[in-house]
Structure formats: structure tokens, C-alpha cells
Amino acid sequence: MIKAVMIEDDREIAELLKEYLNRFNIELTNFENASEGLGAISKKNGGFDVLILDLTLPDMDGLEICKTVSRTSGIPIIISSARGDYSDIVAGLEIGADDYVAKPYNPRELVARIRSLIRRKNGGKGKTNLFEIDEGKMAIKKAGETLDLTSAEYELFLILYKNRGSVITRDFILENIKTMSYESIDRSVDVLIGRIRKKIGDDPKNPIYIKSIRGYGYKFYED
Fold it and tell me: Which element (helix H / strand E) includes 37?
């Protein structure tokens, strides 16, 4: 079982997540204040596999907690934030957070992100790829079924997939897709993303695999 620790002062959210995550074999322990949470994590990481961290807490700023945990512990960190300022998210990622989810979010998305981080922490051991790439045939399969992608869609998917876990900017995409004109506007990238999401079964309102990073570009996650 995956053991997750959360620092979240909203007790109702914590209880709902605890019940939901347990269905996916994830045991959640929540602390409503920073001092108790940091104390539990410091005890040999508390045996925890991942930290879910709210940025807005009554006794300590979440970014300071993120910095402390990143400096003293090897536990992966997922920022959970309702803050509208994306500079806080970027700051969190720069000081050691591994991922983030913006509130309100679909709990199933949190499950996917937790599993993704655990796989990366374990070096991908025991992982079965949902997507299969055959670059020789320029073919991509999802769960064994070949996707019907155009050349531009294939190239874009390949860029995102090879760099999964990293934010890829629209400028980078435009410069590296041969089948797209260099004069293409950013919106054309968004259109391609929309078509790919539809073909891989990714809900555009609550995407699991291809996540939009406002003001930057896109990030690919594989459940």
C-alpha cells in the first residue's frame, strides 16, 4: 500500500480524500497544521511515500514547508493549491516540489499523480506502459490499440511523451514539429492538443494525461 501524508487544514477535504484514496490502495494521513506534519515526516520520513501539501496554512506558509521538506527529506512533494497566482506554483516547483494540482481538482487526477511520482521514485520498476511507441512505423498504441493520428499529432504526442513529467512550451513545440509551419500561431498547438486528447480518451475538462500549464505550455502524465 502507498502511504501518503497530507498537510491540509480543511478537515472535510481531508476526510473525503482519505476515503477516496483508500479505494486505490493509498493510505492517507493528514495533519491540519505544519508543525505536526513536519514532525511526522522528520521521523525517518514517517514511512511516507509522498507528501500532498496545501500552500495556504494557518501556522506556516506552504512554500516554506516545501523548502524545508525538500532540503531535509527525499519524499516526493505534490503541491495542492487554490491560489490563483501561478508564480507560487512555479516557486514551489523551483524549490523542490515534484508536481502540483490546482484546487478544485478531480480526486482521480490526484491518484494518477501519486502513482506517477511513486513510479519515478522507484525507477519505473513494475511499470506497465499504457502507451506503446513504434517510431519506425510512426505508430502509437494505447492499451494495445493503434491510435489514428495525423503526422502532426504523432509528432506532438511523441514530444510530450518523451518529456513526460516536464513542462513543454508552445514555442518548443512549434520549433520541433516538422509538419507544422514555423509561422503557426500558438492556438494551432492548442487545437492539436484538443484532437490528441479526444483520440486518447482524455477528458478536456479534467485531463489526466495532457495537462495545460497556464502561461507555459503542456505537461504529460502517464497513469
Answer: helix 34-42
**Looking at residue 212, which CATH number applies to its domain?**
1.10.10.10
Residues in contact with 73: Cβ distance below 8 Å, sequence separation at least 6, in sequence order:
41, 42, 45
How far is 8 from 52, CA to CA, in rounded Å? Answer: 8
CA distances, 109 to each of 112, 116, 147, 157, 210 (Å): 5, 11, 23, 20, 11
Residue where the block lists cell 502561461: 215
What are residue 158's phi and psi, to 5 degrees?
A: -60, -45
Count of CB atoms within 10 A of residue 192's CB? 21
Residue 168 Cα to chain centre, angstroms: 13
Identity of residue 171: D
Kindly tell me if the per-residue pLDDT of 44 is higher than 70.
no
What pLDDT, in 10s, does the model give residues 155-198?
Answer: 999 999 988 878 888 888 888 887 765 444 556 888 999 999 99
Q: How far is CA 44 from CA 49, 53, 70, 119, 222, in A?
A: 11, 18, 14, 21, 29
- One domain, residues 115 and 138: no
Chain position carrying cell 504529460: 220
Q: Is residue 42 part of a domain?
A: yes
Total domains in the chain come to 2
